[in-house]
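Teaching note: in complex prediction, the entire set of molecules is handled at once rather than each chain in isolation. The prompt given to students was simply: 'Predict the structure of this complex.' The entities are:
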Amino acid sequence: MNTTTATDEGVVPVRQTAAQRRSLPDFRDVAHELAQQEHICARPIPMLAYNSKTLTEEYLGAPCKATIASVCPACADKARFLRITQSREGWHIASEPENEKIPPTEQQTALLAARADLFETFQQAKADGDQDMMSGIREVVADLDAEMKNSGVPGTAARPRS
Ligand SMILES: [Zn+2]
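The expected output is the structure of the full assembly:
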């Protein structure tokens, strides 16, 4: 029994099994192969482009801009050549950009020392069961934290709890 027919394009089977159909290249495989032959992006990203002159919208394929050759050889090559050119032209920075560490001011250290002294007092008040003293210390600590924040220290330390 003959299950294939010869045509101008090639041999097309008349009746195929599911396994044979699965082994045939689909549209994506053909497009991927063509992209590799032409050395263009194999994974274009569809982007909706608006043309203000004709007032129309259309989808365009933007290159994926991958830098890994196994992902997209064309885009990886393009990115590599760009890096080579930028390095040759001296686009790289000569030194690491580091922000200079600003030392704490006297006011900031004094605020933290006062806060630390209050910790001992709070623990004593807690041991004595003096609730008024504890709530007073909490208010003072909240004021000290606000003052610390205003002096330019980001974040807060843990507040005393009952
Ligand atoms: Zn690509």
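Point out the following to students. The CA atoms of residues 55 and 99 lie 48 Å apart. The pocket of zinc ion is lined by residues 41-43, 63-64, 66, 72, 74-75 (CB under 6 Å).
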